Amino acid sequence: MSPQEQHAAGRGYSVPTGRPYALRELQAALGSLGDHLRDLYEGAHPTEYEAVADALYAAFRTAAGLAPAKSHTGCPEHPDGALDPEAPDGWGRCLICNDRRRRGLRERGGRAGRDAAARLAGPPAGEQRRLGYPVPDPPYTLQALHTHLRSVEERRFHLTLSSPSDDFVRLADDVHRAFIVARELSRPRNASGCSEHPGAPIDPDAPPGEACIFCAGRKRRAQRSAAAPEMLPRIRRGERRQLQRRFERPPG
């Protein structure tokens, strides 16, 4: 029941425990992002995005705590139950609820069986909450970060203690999108052009197109001829190896 319905029914509305403190902490964390973003520009060094990514991650953890917990199945009765790999269209993902629904269809049959199975079934897949948080598509640029943060600011402005749970869910999703963009911008740039070692240093002596110092070193080692191993003379027990000095020490 929503807060408005509870108030209309005369039962009042009680704020969930911890929501005032968590909401105040979230508002403060999101409000401080402007100080970090003010000095950013296109082509900024990845280390300059680290403070933004850290602040967004802390804000996301707080926003996720304010929103209802996401479950594997999306079923309020069996949040951590098994997933149904063969769920029909329009059914939920909870294997227990779907199995209960199938048994109701088989046992009763006809329209009465379908009605009973519908009552026993969980919410449809479209109404169930997904487990993962949304991840935006690339490219990840400063403009994309500003776009997601504007959406966060709009939702944060209208958020209150009596806001419905769906508003907190949407805010957590938007903060997660902004965090993903900031995290990708804080990664080392692929200056070497190597897909295997994106953050590798550049080899100044490598030919064009082979600037990765790790790949260049591996290629040199592969081209180097394998010399025959040199066997040292075996030392008998009780003897000491006589080391040959390349240069004699000066007298005195």
Overall helicity: 40-55%
| Tally of strands | 0
Chain-averaged pLDDT: 76
- N-to-C order of helices and strands: HHHHHHHHH
Q: Enumerate how many helices there are, as a single number.
A: 9
* Total individual domains: 3
Show unreliable segments.
Answer: 120-130
Q: Hey, roughly how much beta strand do the residues contain? A: under 5%
What distance lies between the first and last C-alpha atoms, to the nearest angstrom?
98 Å
Structural class: mainly alpha
Region (Disordered): 106-130, 189-208, 223-252
Biased composition (Basic and acidic residues): 106-117, 240-252
Features:
single chain, mainly alpha, 3 domains, 9 helices
Structure description:
The protein is 45% helix and 0% strand. The chain has helices spanning 3-8, 19-31, 33-37, 50-66, 95-108, 110-120, 142-157, 165-185, 213-223. Helix 2 (19-31) packs antiparallel against helix 4. The longest helix is centred in the C-terminal third of the chain and has 21 residues, at 165-185. The protein is extended.
Summarize the structure.
Residues 106-117, 240-252 have a biased composition (Basic and acidic residues). With 252 residues, the protein is mainly α.
Write the layout of secondary structure elements.
Layout: H1 3-8, H2 19-31, H3 33-37, H4 50-66, H5 95-108, H6 110-120, H7 142-157, H8 165-185, H9 213-223
Helix pairs in contact: 2-4, 4-8, 5-6, 7-8
